[in-house]
Amino acid sequence: MTQTAHIMDTASSQYITASSPYGVNQCSKCPGDTAYYCVSCPCDLCPQCKENHVKDLQTIDHNVVSHRDKINYIPTQEICVRHPSHVYTKYCDPCQVPACNNCQTYRKHTQIDVITAYKTKRQQHRGTIHTIRSEALFYRPVLLTEIKADVKTCHTEFSPLQSEMLTKAQNLKDLIDYVVYDLLNNVLCDFDFKHRCKKQKIEMIRHIVRLRRYEHRYVQPAFTFSALQFLSFTKTALPQIHLTLHTSQLSMTESLNKEDVMESLSAIQITERGNRRVGNQCLLKLTSGAELHQSLTLTGVDRCSHISCVTSDRVWVCDTYNLMLTDTTGVPLHHVEDLWSGLFGIHTVNSESELIYIDRNDNINKLSKDMKTTTTFIERTDSTWRPGCVYWSPSTGDLLLAMYNNDAYTGKVTGKVTRYNQSGQLTQTIQYHNTGRGLYRVPYYITENNNGDVVVSDYESAVVVTERGGRHRFSYTGHPSGSRLVPRGICTDALSHILVCDDITNTVQMINKDGRFLSHLLTKSQEMGRPWGLSYDVNTHRLWVGSLDNEVCVYRYITRQDALTDEHRPRPDEDPMSSSTQAV
After folding, report:
1. Tell me, what DSSP letter sits at residue 226?
2. pLDDT per residue as tens digits for the range 497-515
3. Omega within 30 of 0 (cis) for the link into 42
4. How confident is the model at residue 445 (pLDDT cuts 50, 70, 90)?
5. Residue 583 class from Cβ within 10 Å (0-12 exposed, 13-18 middle, 19+ buried)?
6. pTM
7. For the stretch 243-265, what's the b/e string if a residue is b when 16 or more beta carbons lie within 10 angstroms of its beta carbon?
8. Residues 6+ apart with CB under 8 A from 268
9. What is the distance between the alpha carbons of residues 143 and 560, in angstroms, rounded to a whole number?
10. Least confident among 67-81, 321-335, 361-375
C-alpha cells in the first residue's frame, strides 16, 4: 500500500491529528487540523470551526463537505455477501440494494454503477444533512438545558398535582360506589320483570274470561236466565284487576346528581403529548440593523412585484405578465406562461416545493416540483369575485386566498379572505369586521403569522390583521399614528414581526404581532430602489426584497442567540451520548 493510499484509508475512518507522521492541512480559521472543506468560501475547517460555520446564519447555506469528498475519495469496494469472490459493482435501483456481476436476481432490473449511486444518494441527502448540521445540532444544547432544569423541578411541581389527582380520584370513586349501591338496592331487586309480566298476563286472561261470562249472562234471554238468577248473579262483585305496568328505571337519588359527576370528570384534563420544541425567541434575535447579504439583477422580468422562496438559492419572482424561477445569479430557470396579470401576490410555494399561482382564467393552479405537471387546484366558480393573492400556510397546510369584488352598478370594491384545506375544499370565509362592516377593499398581498393571525396588505388602506378564527385584531395605518400608508408586499419572520413595504415612504416597516411600530427596517438606497415584493426565507432567516425594477436584494437582520455557551459545549471526557452528538 502506498503512503497516499494509507492516508486516504485512515482519513475515511477517523480524523488525522497533528501527531500523525503524515502532513495535514491546517484549518483556515484556527490552528486546528483540517477535517472539512467549505466549497462555497472556499476554506479548510476543523470540526469545531465547521460546527460554527454551518450554524452561522451568514454561512448557513454554504456547502461544507468532508475532506474525502473534496478529494473525491470513494470507500474501498465491498465484498458481495452472496458471492464472496466478487465485489459490489452495481446498484439495483428498484430494490435499493447493491449487486455484483453474479447476482442473477437483479439482472433484469435497472442497475447503475455503484459509485454513481453513491454520489447520487449523497446529493439527495444533502438537505437532510444540512438540516441536522444547521438546525438540529444548534437546538440540541438549548433543549438539553431545558430538560436538565425540568428534571430538577419536576418532582416539586408534580407532587401537589399528584395529591390533587388522588383526591379527585377518591371523590369520583365514592360517587361510583354510591351509584352501584343504589343500583343493587333499589333497582336490581325489581329485575324479576319477565316473571312479573308473565304472571300479570295470566291474570289478565282470566279477568277477560270473567268479563265475557258476565257480559254473556247480562244479555241472556229471559227464558234461559230468570230474573232471580240475574239478581243473584249481580250479588257477586265484579273482580277488580289493577293494571300496573311493571317497569324498572335506573335513576340516581336526589342526593347524587349528574352535575357532581360532571364536575369531577371535567376537572380531569389530559394534555396531548408532543415533541419538545424550542421557541424562536430563545434562538434568534434582531441585529443592530439590516445588512445587505447579496443583490442580483434579474433577466426575464422588468420588475419584481412578488417573491416566493423555494430554497436558499432559488426563488419564484414575477412582474405584471411574467413568472419565472431564478437562482442567485438572476438567470431564469423556468417560465410560467398562463399567468394572471397584475401587481399582486399571485403565487406561493408549499412544503413540497410546488408552485401555487393564479392563472389567466382566475383559477388556482399547482405546478409540480419537477415543473412538468400543472393541475387546477381550485377552479373559479363565482364570476363576481376575482382572486387577488394567495398564501400557503406552513402550519396548517391550508391555502389562503384573498379575493375582491367590483360592483359594476355602485363602483364599490370589497374584499374577502377564503381558506381552503389540502383537498381544495372551502373551510372558512373572512369578510366582515366585528361591527358588521367590510374588512377589506382590494387585498394586494396575504400572509400568516406564527400565532395563526391572517395578515393582509389592503390596497391604499392598511395592514389588516385578523385572528385565525376571523375576528378582527387591528389595522395598521402607518407611523406615526394618523399618517397615511400605502401597503404593498408583506411577510412575517421567525420572531412574529410583520414586515410591509410602504409605497409612500419607499420603506420596509417592521411592526410587532400586536401592531406596534418597531422600526423602518429598510429605506430606499442605492442597492434597493422602490421596495414592492417581500419574502422571508425561514431556513436562512434572510429577507428577499424586490423593487419596481429588475433588482432583488437579500438582507440579514436576524442572527442567532449565543445558545452554545461553555456550559453547553461537551467536555473532551464527557460521554457523547449524554452531552453531544458527534459531528456530521
Report:
1. -
2. 999 999 999 999 999 999 9
3. yes
4. very high
5. middle
6. 0.69
7. eeeeeeeeeeeeeeeeeebeebe
8. 165, 168
9. 15
10. 67-81
